[in-house]
Amino acid sequence: MQMSHVAIDPDAQRASPEFFKSAMRTLMGGVCVVTTRQGDNVIGVTVTATCSVSAEEPLILICLNRSGRIAAPIAEEGRFGLSVLSENQRSVAQYFARSGEACEPHFVWDNDCPTIDGALARLVCVSQHQVHAGTHLILVALVEQATVLAGLPLGYANGSYCTVAPLREEINTDPALRKAPELRR
After folding, report:
1. Which of 7, 37, 66, 162 is deepest in the core (most CB within 10 A)?
2. Helix, strand counts (H, E) of the chain
3. Residue among 148, 142, 139 nearest 57 (CA)
4. How many CB atoms lie within 10 A of CB 90?
5. Roughly how many angstroms between the first and final C-alpha of the chain, as a whole number?
6. Which residues of 93-118 are buried (b: 16+ CB within 10 A; e: fewer)?
7. What string of pLDDT tens digits covers the 185 residues of the chain?
8. How far is CA 66 from CA 28, 63, 71, 73, 133, in A?
9. Cβ of 25: how many Cβ atoms within 10 Å?
10. Of 123, 124, 120, nearest to 164 (Cα)?
11. C-alpha distances in angstroms, 90 versus 29, 36, 117?
């Protein structure tokens, strides 16, 4: 494994933004698209800052840049879709990461909420808590509906898209890792 070192000031009270960004780029994240309505239009953004919070009360957490065009509509509307992209949906991720990419995403309307067709998981969410932290808005949301498909997720690490696969020995021993039919709740 090749390691790169970034010099920091040992007397600094906190990491510089550049050093912090370099450190966080090493953290692989699942690639998701957050979508909502704005008038008659669907708007969305690609995110990797998502995680589950609770299963008994199905809650998720997402982080959105407050200067992005989707944070204010979601904060006002309260409802949004979260689509966990599959390994073959890189073009969808790029489309919502930068406007102008050559992709026309297809939407599925789950419970009157836009989500991405073909995503491994499509969640319909309602914001429960909002926290302003630095440049971002942290949302904790209740999951009203979830649809799950089989497949491998799209990931992002070190500035590149990637995918993950279970270790071969786990595939052979864990029946849950074998292909599953579509699940819906």
Report:
1. 37
2. 4, 13
3. 142
4. 17
5. 42
6. bbbbeeeeeeeebebeebeebbbbeb
7. 454 555 555 666 778 888 888 888 888 899 999 999 988 889 999 999 999 999 999 999 999 999 988 999 998 889 999 999 999 999 999 999 985 555 678 999 998 899 999 999 999 999 999 999 999 999 999 999 999 999 999 999 988 999 887 776 655 565 554 554 444 43
8. 23, 9, 5, 11, 9
9. 14
10. 120
11. 14, 20, 13
Where do the H-state alpha helices sit in 14-113?
Answer: 17-25, 71-77, 90-97
**Structure tokens of 56?**
């008994």
Strand 113-116 and strand 154-157: the pairing is: unpaired
Q: Which residue has the tokens 């510089």?
A: 16
